[in-house]
From TrEMBL:
Coiled-coil residue spans: none
Gene3D superfamilies associated with the record: MetI-like (1.10.3720.10)
Taxonomic source organism: Simiaoa sunii
InterPro entries, A to Z: MetI-like (IPR000515), MetI-like_sf (IPR035906)
Name of this chain's protein: ABC transporter permease
């Protein structure tokens, strides 16, 4: 009897601890998302506010060439920056996991230090680097690689560099957390069976750290679709992302339903990415078990 009563109290205590989480999720996650989707099917009022009339015009408007090109440009930038982040962050995180404890702490500290300052301040630092006669121009001309200042600021490459700089720590930490749990005895076993160092890495190490890489891809791709302030600061008005259009529709156009429709489509795209990630990681883990 005492055992049943104590287990019942524990169950009641666990439920009591879960209630605040559920309440928070409903109030600050589920309801705002539901409100956004409902708002996307309404009309903008003539003067201010929303007209409660059902319509699909907001989604039809997204199919216009102007907004389709904006989505395509956002996807292109997201794929480009995510690819570069993966190419740079995976080796960094993987080899950092192979270091001794002292160097691991040092490398982690180098990754975390930039987070001690505002992201906007760090992005404005890139303006000093990319502007004409800036730090980069002086270095290149000092090395006699260029004869005149380059116009890098407010260009697409500058935005890509800003995206990579902002998202790289997430990839490194995701890969590092996965590579640190790697069982090196499996790698040694593959080498003992005759596999080369490259084949052992590709067939064992890479596959076991693939979930960390895919986590970093998700953590990099999804934010890159909405980091419009990076494009505004380093790209000027030349690089327009979906996030920039949403902000403009809310602040200047005062068209909240259309902004909600854009946000809904963006959320669907990111949800597809998360679904693909879960499917791939689930499949890879199942293959590893087999």
């Amino acid at each position: 009897m005492k055992t049943k009563k104590s287990s019942g109290r524990r169950d009641a205590g666990n439920i009591g601890l879960l209630i605040p989480m559920y309440v928070f999720t409903v109030l600050f996650v589920a309801l705002p998302i539901l409100y956004m989707f409902l708002l996307s099917f309404l009309q903008r009022a003539q003067v201010w506010g929303v007209d409660f009339t059902f319509t699909l015009d907001n989604y039809k408007r997204i199919l216009e060439p102007l907004y389709l090109n904006t989505f395509l440009q956002s996807l292109k930038l997201a794929f480009t920056s995510t690819l570069l982040v993966a190419l740079i962050g995976y080796p960094y995180g993987y080899f950092m996991a192979q270091m001794n404890a002292v160097w691991k702490r040092r490398m982690l500290l180098l990754i975390m230090i930039p987070f001690w300052t505002s992201g906007l301040i760090r992005l404005y630092g890139w303006i000093i680097v990319f502007r004409s006669n800036g730090v980069l121009d002086k270095i290149l001309m000092g090395l006699h690689l260029t004869d005149q200042p380059l116009k890098l600021l407010y260009t697409y490459p500058a935005v890509v560099v800003g995206m990579v700089y902002a998202l790289l720590p997430f990839m490194i930490l995701a890969v590092y957390s996965s590579a640190e749990k790697l069982d090196h005895s499996l790698v040694e076993a593959s080498r003992d069976l005759g596999a080369s160092s490259w084949k052992a890495f590709w067939t064992v190490s890479f596959r076991l750290t693939l979930p960390g890489l895919l986590s970093g891809v998700v953590l990099s791709f999804i934010p890159s679709m909405g980091l419009f302030f990076i494009a505004d600061i380093l790209g000027g008005n030349k690089i327009v992302l979906v996030g920039s259009v949403i902000q403009e529709q809310i602040t200047k156009g005062r068209n909240q339903p259309f902004a909600a429709a854009l946000s809904a489509v963006l959320m669907v795209l990111t949800s597809v990415m998360i679904r693909l990630y879960r499917k791939i990681t689930g499949t890879s883990q199942l293959e590893g078990m087999l």
